[in-house]
Amino acid sequence: MKNSISSFLIVCFLSLIMVACSDNVEPNFSFSPDMPKRGQKVTFTNLTTGEEDWEAESWTWTFGDGGKSLSKNPVYTYKEAGKYKVTLMVDSSKHKTKTLDITVYDTIPTIYTGIDSVKYYENVTFSALAYNPYANDVTYEWTFSENAVSDQLTDGKSKDEEVTLYFNKKKVMEYVSLHITIVNEIDTVIVDSFYVHDVKAKSLLMAQKGNLILRQRIFGNMTEPSENTEFFAGHNPFKLIANQDVLYVFDAGSDISAKANWSTDTSGDGSIRSIQLTDKAVTEIVHNRGMSAAHGFYQGFVDQNYLYWTDRSEFIYRSEINKTLGAFTWNGSGEAQTSVPYYLLKTDRLGYFGKGLSSGQFNGGLYYYDQVYFWAKGGTGRGIYRFLSTDILTAAATATTPVPTAGVILTDYAVRAFTIDELNRKIYFSVTAPADKIGFWVADLNGRNAKRIDDAPMDNELLYITGIMVDNESNRVYWAYRSPETLNMPSPSDSWADWYEKHPTHRTGVKMATLANEFKSTGPIQYFAPEVAAYGIALDHGKKF
């Protein structure tokens, strides 16, 4: 027993010594010649320090072109010119490694990209592999087609040593030429050709009033023109939501104007439809045809289990996500409507000391996040109301009814539409009143630190910005803006051209900016889809050609 314990202690002691010694080891190496040509032998010299106190487990070399060696000081020959990464690993646990770059030249200059294929809208860097062991002066003159886009290009030409660019045309052959001069050595023109491959990308879906839904793919550099889908957007499609492979269209209907008597109105023709983005099947979930337009589907939200929607001003409804409801059920404006199977909440069923959620205030959006409901309103009770399921009352609130658990935020803003960036914990929202706060804003999730992003005109709750979308992958927020000109309103100045010259980001279109976080505000406004008069917008994560 004692011998076993002693042996165990000795092994542990030796292991500790080896670990301690290995901590002093610093892998390193050099290679010769410094500028090898293809077919030329390259000698790699191991310069690892600390070996005197530690015996290496192995010497594992990878040469960047698929070749490997276990020798301490290998000699290797590259068959092709190119730029490679050489790695030396001196322990089996892969903690002790050293990586250096090596450039292998050809006997004549060659154009090098370092990638297998050139892809549409993706950056590619062009450089020259030119053997120049004596460091003579080199001049470059690159020539690309009109489809190449880069700040380094002027009329398709550049004199830089390396050029990074992308191509804005797909499925075409491209040609690049390089006139390279190395003083007293080389003066030649190299021409290379390659095919620009299309790539699958996610898309922004944009609802046009009374027209087809548009699709526009999202790329890191630029955007391609939008294309029509085969899906009808609706009469006033204020909200689009893409949930996995299903797109939900919330259409308020063709008549959204205020009525003197909503109870006698029968102009409703709105609906909620689901569109399968894979097999393109369309299902009508619920409609209000022949009923009051107040029961239209003005806003909505979708999670993994439920479909939520709001009418014009009074109610929130909720149903199972895959359930078809048919004609909307209207039992009456009072207690009777609370018995509808998909009823969730009425405006007077949340307490806020007798103020706030009174009748007739326009619904500005709905969101359900972290067990909290967010319900935006305009009118005198403006703001975003936050509440839990347990805050929903069975009868109308009174002046003594407690405040909803999460409270109300952004009470200075009549919110037309909003969405939540869950990753950065921000709220993006559009505002129609008061006059000094009109525009597009971002605030912390608790409503603090509100900052205006876009001050474009927006003073009507039925118009302007109704679609907002956050995309954390591309780090952008998108919002759909329809200018007064698009809505046939008079110009704020002598002409719309003069107005736009002074306010270039006040034109109609889907705009975008980088997302805000706790360290920085949003970036400058850019146009994702210029001149597209979109209502609801949604992100289709399914990558497609």
Structural summary, described in words:
This protein is mainly β. Among the domains are: 24-104, Immunoglobulins (Immunoglobulin-like, Sandwich), CATH 2.60.40; 110-197, Immunoglobulin-like, CATH 2.60.40.10. It has two helices and 41 strands. A hairpin with a 5-residue loop joins strand 34 and strand 35. The protein is elongated. It starts with a helix and ends with a strand.
Instruction: Give the proportion of residues in helices.
Output: under 10%
Cα-atom Rg, whole angstroms? 32 Å
Globally, the shape reads elongated
Indicate the CATH topology of the domain at 110-197. Answer: Immunoglobulin-like
How many individual helices? 2
Instruction: Give the class-level CATH name of the domain at 110-197.
Output: Mainly Beta
Q: Reading side by side through the largest sheet, how are the strands ordered?
A: 9-16-15-11-13
Number of separate strands: 41
Major beta sheet, specifics? 5 strands, mixed
- In whole angstroms, the N-to-C terminal distance is 71 Å
Summarize model confidence as the mean pLDDT. Answer: 89
- Report the structural category: mainly beta
Low confidence ranges: 1-21
Mind telling me which CATH architecture of the domain at 110-197 this is? Sandwich
Element layout with pairings:
Layout: H1 2-22, E1 29-32, E2 41-46, E3 60-62, E4 68-69, E5 75-77, E6 82-89, E7 97-104, E8 110-112, E9 118-119, E10 124-129, E11 138-143, E12 148-149, E13 157-158, E14 163-167, E15 172-182, E16 186-197, E17 201-208, E18 212-217, E19 227-232, E20 239-243, E21 246-251, E22 271-276, E23 282-287, E24 299-302, E25 306-310, E26 315-320, E27 326-327, E28 343-346, E29 363-369, E30 372-377, E31 383-387, E32 407-409, E33 414-421, E34 426-433, E35 439-444, E36 451-454, E37 467-471, E38 476-481, H2 496-502, E39 509-514, E40 526-530, E41 534-544
